[in-house]
Design brief:
binds coenzyme A; alpha+beta; globular; Aminopeptidase; 7-stranded mixed β-sheet; 7 helices
Length: 187
């Protein structure tokens, strides 16, 4: 049975392993701004620090999809406060959140895992004051675009250049989605 939860501080090895697996995905070059080689070169302390923030920070959270105890997908939601600069060096206009690092294991693609992860991300973002939830998706990543569009994300018309190439900005009016209203809090 599938459930979504936030990672815990002591799970840094699982966080590292899932990241390495996602960076090995054939789609990784257009899905992520990092490479497996650079991730493999990082120290245990890097993964401990990253996992501590992902587990406990008020600025962002990493959520995992768990199926019978096995992690089968993940994303990270990052809060953006007005005046701050986001990961593509844009100035943030209103309280918002970005979703990054989205990955679902191939065995769980097309089965709703991505929707459950996005629902939980929106719930966490709204609970922390975000008015919109946005993401950047590579112009050639049509499957990801399809999943985001089905969930309710819409293209803003903004196209940016990242190390991965040209990316479309997609956004969702978080306060209007109402999707997460009945879900228990993720903490
Ligand atoms: C992106 C990802 C999380 C999406 O999850 P998923 O379970 O595969 O998504 P789904 O299959 O539920 O939805 C994909 C949608 O795109 C459509 N789609 C699939 N391939 C497509 C293509 N080549 N062109 C256009 N649409 C396509 C599907 O029909 C579906 O839409 P529908 O339900 O309206 O029919 C997953 O594919 C993944 O982990 N990919 C590798 C990493 C990645 O790309 N991450 C995103 C970085 S922004």
């Amino acid at each position: 049975m599938l459930s979504i939860r936030r990672v815990r501080v002591d799970e840094w090895e699982a966080v590292r392993d899932l990241r390495l697996e996602s960076l090995s995905d054939p789609l990784a070059p257009i899905a992520f701004l990092d490479t497996r080689a650079s991730a493999e070169a990082r120290s245990d302390d890097f993964w401990r620090d990253r996992t501590a923030r992902a587990a406990e920070s008020d600025d962002g959270a990493q959520l995992v999809a768990e199926d019978d105890g096995e992690w089968v997908g993940s994303l990270t939601v990052l809060l953006r406060r007005p005046g701050a600069t986001d990961h593509l060096h844009r100035t943030v206009a209103h309280p918002s959140a970005d979703v990054v690092g989205v990955w679902v294991r191939p065995t769980h693609r097309g089965d709703g895992t991505i929707d459950a992860l996005l629902e939980a991300a929106v719930e966490w973002a709204v609970a922390h004051g975000a008015q919109t939830v946005s993401l950047d998706v590579h112009v050639d990543n049509h499957r990801a675009q399809g999943a985001y569009r089905r969930f309710g994300f819409r293209e803003t018309g903004e196209v940016t250049q990242s190390v991965a190439g040209r990316e479309l900005r997609m956004t969702l009016q978080a306060e209007r989605s109402g999707r997460a209203a009945d879900r228990p809090s993720l903490g």
